[in-house]
């Protein structure tokens, strides 16, 4: 075995050659890896095929998603697909009419769709607008609901007074706020200890709005 001595250090010739070969192979591999990455080879492109534009786009979309407020389940207030005019023929109105034949002023509206809805209050442009009282009874008259409120285009709005009537039992009275047909609270507990669950439903006058 040949030993080369230099500056009092001994090197194995075979080891020196192997180290140089390994370094050369490593450099060549890094060069090839870099070229394949730049050209977008799917096998070696470990960081994906994003260019600067796509990265910025993805970051912007991510920021937008993080800023989004989680959506809560809300009833659909769009009644444009409801044929109200046809449904009105199934009800009964007592009161004044304007020059176009629409309900106006103080009147009484009675409508039945499984339950019976009795509304007494102000109308404008053919729809409940203003103060009024909506009474709902089921077919067996077991349970009656009475809603006293201000109505805007058929929807209860503002502070309302709600009474649940069960025969031979004390009435359940609740006062709470509604924002255009949607109660601002889900659970309402009254002074008697009764709990009223207000969702899911639109608090309005049928058939303009299907009520709770």
In short:
By secondary structure, the protein is α+β, with helices and mostly antiparallel strands. It has helices spanning 13-38, 52-67, 84-88; strands at residues 3-6, 9-12, 92-97, 103-113, 115-124, 127-137, 144-152, 155-165, 172-179, 182-183, 187-189, 195-197. Helices cover 22% and strands 39% of the residues.
Describe, in plain words, how this protein is organized in 3D.
- The chain is α+β, with helices and mostly antiparallel strands.
- The protein has two domains: 65 residues, no CATH class; 114 residues.
- Helices cover 22% and strands 39% of the residues.
- It has three helices and twelve strands; from the N terminus they run ββαααββββββββββ.
- The chain has an eight-stranded antiparallel β-sheet, with no helix packed on it.
- It is elongated and about 115 Å long.
- The N terminus is likely disordered.
What is the element layout, followed by pairings?
Elements (H helix, E strand, L loop, with lengths): L2 E4 L2 E4 H26 L13 H16 L16 H5 L3 E6 L5 E11 L1 E10 L2 E11 L6 E9 L2 E11 L6 E8 L2 E2 L3 E3 L5 E3 L15
Antiparallel strand pairs: 1-2, 3-4, 4-5, 5-6, 6-7, 7-8, 8-9, 9-10, 11-12
């Amino acid at each position: 075995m040949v030993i080369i001595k230099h500056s009092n250090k001994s090197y194995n010739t075979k080891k020196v050659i192997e180290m140089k070969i390994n370094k050369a192979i490593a450099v060549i591999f890094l060069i090839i890896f870099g070229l394949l990455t730049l050209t977008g080879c799917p096998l070696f492109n470990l960081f994906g095929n994003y260019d600067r534009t796509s990265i910025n786009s993805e970051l912007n979309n991510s920021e937008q998603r993080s800023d989004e407020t989680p959506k809560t389940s809300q009833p659909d207030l769009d009644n444009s697909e409801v044929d109200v005019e046809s449904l009105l023929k199934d009800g009964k109105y007592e009161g004044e009419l304007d020059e176009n034949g629409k309900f106006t002023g103080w009147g009484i509206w009675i409508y039945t769709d499984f339950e019976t809805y009795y509304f007494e209050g102000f109308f404008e442009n053919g729809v409940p607008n203003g103060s009024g009282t909506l009474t709902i009874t089921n077919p067996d008259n077991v349970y009656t609901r009475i809603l006293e409120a201000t109505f805007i285009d058929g929807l209860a709005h503002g502070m309302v007074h709600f009474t649940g009537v069960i025969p031979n039992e004390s009435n359940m009275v609740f006062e709470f706020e509604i924002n255009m047909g949607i109660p601002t609270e889900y659970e309402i507990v009254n002074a008697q200890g009764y709990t009223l669950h207000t969702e899911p439903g639109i608090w309005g006058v049928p058939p303009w709005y299907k009520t709770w």
